[in-house]
Amino acid sequence: MLAVSWFFSQFSRDENTPPPAGVRTIPCTAVDRFAAKGLVLTPGLVINARLDTRILAESLTRLIQYKFPRAGARLAFRNGAYEFQIPKTFDAETPAAVFTVDDYPEAYDGFGRPQIPSALTGSQPSIHPVPELDEFVRSKMCPKTEDDFLQPNVPLLHVHFSVFRDLTFIGVTVPHIGFDMLGTGALLAAWTRVINGDDLDAIPGMEWNAQPFAHYVPASDSNSVTSIRTSLRGWFDLGWLSQLSFIGRFVLSSIRDPKEVGYLVRVPKVFINEAKEKIMNEIKAQGSNEYVGSSDVLMAWWYKTVYSYRTPTDHTPVHLHFASSLRSRSVFAQDGPLAYPYINNAISYLPVPPIPLNAFVTESLGQLALRIRRAIVTYNADAAALRADLRWLFESSNATKMAFPCPPGAEFSITTNWRDGKLGALDFSGAVVSESKSEAAAGRVLFVHTVITMGKAFPLRGSGAVFMEDEDVVWMGQVLGSKDWERIRETGAVVFA
């Protein structure tokens, strides 16, 4: 009966449809809608041991029940708005998450299976094909679109285990409207604490009714507009002629280079650290107190590589956008950061002032890294502007407006950095089966394989993510046109496997 109630609550057009019985409701925020774009995300963890799936499922279920009930919610569309419907109790008919298992008695290697990229070596950056690992991190019945999650009684979390004698794949599939990657990382970190025997009472959780952005929601009886902005910083509200120009240029570039291709980018930390040290020495020699971080160097190197085949006379403006977590910002109640883990979306986009394309060809790595660092410092120092961004986002239907990442005639790139999610540091040793426990460091993450799907075609060209690091390597996934990749290969700026 609960599933039937959910069905009518989700798809009824009645503006006064009550929520179904047995649930508590929380509205999705403007940040959820702005980030979502209809995407479904699966971070897939490759663990270096055979794990006990019973321990994995039971521990995550308990964690959701007692610490993260929002993670066990259902996504619904009721009375013209998206919301999370959180069951008051979880049971066999209303599970906290869906778990599926494929059990392989043999070792992973062999049978023509793809190589796990963690085995790759070398001290210089390199480009590698994405291994075909999707079948090991998503079950065939796993939801693939946001609409799939709107069906009756479908939990937000779908966890798939592929278990081999020597490896375990853990795929955690979620709709982006419900989680960002750092939120998923916070849930996974808490999960491993339960697996390894920590007391539930000692693990920070998230209350079912947490609404840290509530003070940005305009009062229902308010018609005032508090912001004079037409868009978020770094994004453009284009007139219809400019929109046609932007779309036409994008379509033309897609016709010239129609095939989008994703590659893995492997960047050894020794390479990043040596480059950073050289840059810092140059900065100090100039008598400056500025600095660059390893992520600044990584991004500067990447964009210098991407544009290595362009001409030194090309002055096209390039707009870079970096997804940035709001959790540590002073934008919440009492102007302080969040004091608890928050699994839902809490990201903004940090814009770097437009950089002439030829600068990526002619400027040093250190100069480009400083451009990025200065943009980050400026962004972080202006909490008032960030709060204004949020006020604009929550006004009216701004979260669903079409915003453009650059004006016509410019270029753009959007990168998400998941390093703070520390997916490579997760420890599943408490679930390692007995015959594997003698192995050193069993239960560690070898690699993170990501899968992204959506209901409608959405261009990913020019986007990427830094999704994992371990002691030795940082891994990125990047999407470009196939001809762009070939031109980069021809420059010799980076080695292609």
Give an overview in words.
InterPro entries: CAT-like_dom_sf (IPR023213). By secondary structure, the protein is of the alpha+beta class. It has 2 domains: 2-119 and 133-207, Chloramphenicol acetyltransferase-like domain (Chloramphenicol Acetyltransferase); 229-422 and 452-496, Chloramphenicol Acetyltransferase, CATH 3.30.559.10. The protein has 13 helices and 16 strands. The protein has an 8-stranded mixed sheet. A 5-stranded mixed sheet has the order 5-7-8-2-13. The termini are far apart. Residues 1-13 have low confidence and may be disordered.
SSE inventory with pairings:
Layout lengths: L1 H10 L11 E5 L2 H7 L2 E9 L5 H14 L7 E5 L2 E7 L10 E6 L22 E4 L4 H4 L8 H4 L8 E6 L4 E8 L5 H15 L44 H17 L3 E9 H17 L8 H13 L10 E9 L21 E10 H6 L2 H17 L1 H12 L16 E7 L27 E10 L8 E7 L3 E9 H10 L3 E2 L1
Parallel strand pairs: 5-7, 6-16, 10-12, 12-14
Antiparallel strand pairs: 1-4, 2-8, 2-13, 3-4, 6-9, 7-8, 9-15, 10-11, 14-15
Q: How many helix segments?
A: 13
The CATH architecture classification of the largest domain is 2-Layer Sandwich
Number of DSSP-assigned strands = 16
- What is the CATH superfamily classification of the largest domain? Chloramphenicol acetyltransferase-like domain
Distance between the termini: 55 Å
Radius of gyration: 23 Å
Number of domains: 2
Share of β-strand residues? 15-25%
Overall pLDDT confidence: 91
The unreliable regions are 1-13
Largest beta-sheet details? 8 strands, mixed
Q: What is the class of the largest domain in the CATH system? A: Alpha Beta
Query: Major sheet: order of its strands?
Result: 11-10-12-14-15-9-6-16
Name the structural class: alpha+beta
> H/E order of the elements?
HEHEHEEEEHHEEHHEHHEEHHHEEEEHE
What share of the residues lie within helices?
25-40%
InterPro entries: CAT-like_dom_sf (IPR023213)
